[in-house]
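Feature request, filed as a ticket because there's no other form

It would be nice if the structure record came with a short human-readable summary line next to the tokens. Right now we just get the raw output. Example of a typical job, pasted below so the devs can see what we mean:
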Amino acid sequence: MSDTNAVVKPTRQDEAKKALRRFWLAGTAGAFLSGLSRSFPADFATRSFHPNVPYTLDIVLRYGFMMWFLCYFAISSFSAEREHATKSTLASIVHDLGQSAVSLLAIFYLGFVTRGQPPDPAIKFAYANFAVLVISGLSWMVFQSWTNVLSRISVLRELGIVFSALGITSAWVFADSLHAQSVPAYAWFIALQIGLWATLARYWWIQWNMDDESFENANIFSGTPEKVHEKVAPQVPKPVEPAPVAAAAPQTNGADEKPPAVK
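Raw output as currently delivered:
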């Protein structure tokens, strides 16, 4: 009989696909850190005890989006390294490439690559929300969230689509208010970004605590799935009792044996 518990070793093609995903995700995170190292010293030098409120809110939004992308790709890298991701499909590779490309485009328009470009805040926030929209939409399509639209992970992807779509629409509607440095307009974008952060925090909690099958298939109205790291009492093996030894037949020597009776 074959051993059903035998571990299937991944092929070289599977290892190459996984290495490509790891390399691409790490390179994207490196680009984010490079942008932070260029922009943060210059922005820190403009600090003041009497700050310009719209300018300060603009800085908060820019760095909020940057840190959101950085944290998201850290979670994606963790997810790619998990046991279930040993085999990387072509769809998952396209998903990683697509979300990396739009995120790098977003940090360019947020001014982390070329400082001060573009000067239009509506364009900055529109491209940042567009990147979140593409990330959420690609995840929803690639991982077939339509098969269970009310699962915990599907709802988070759908919330990401809703918040980012609202952000894109708001960038178009409140473009003139942003040009006029309206504080309520900036506050509205901060509220939308808080929604994105809450969605990402829940996604991280699921990735950290729960089994993939649990959170992928569990409905939001069902009970809490079982956790991977749930502590189980160690099983103490029972002592093996020695098998009973049959009593040996008494041995007799030839002198003790009685001769057969003679009829």
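Something like this underneath would help us a lot:
Confidence is low (pLDDT under 50) at residues 1-6, 225-233.
The CA atoms of residues 137 and 161 lie 6 Å apart.
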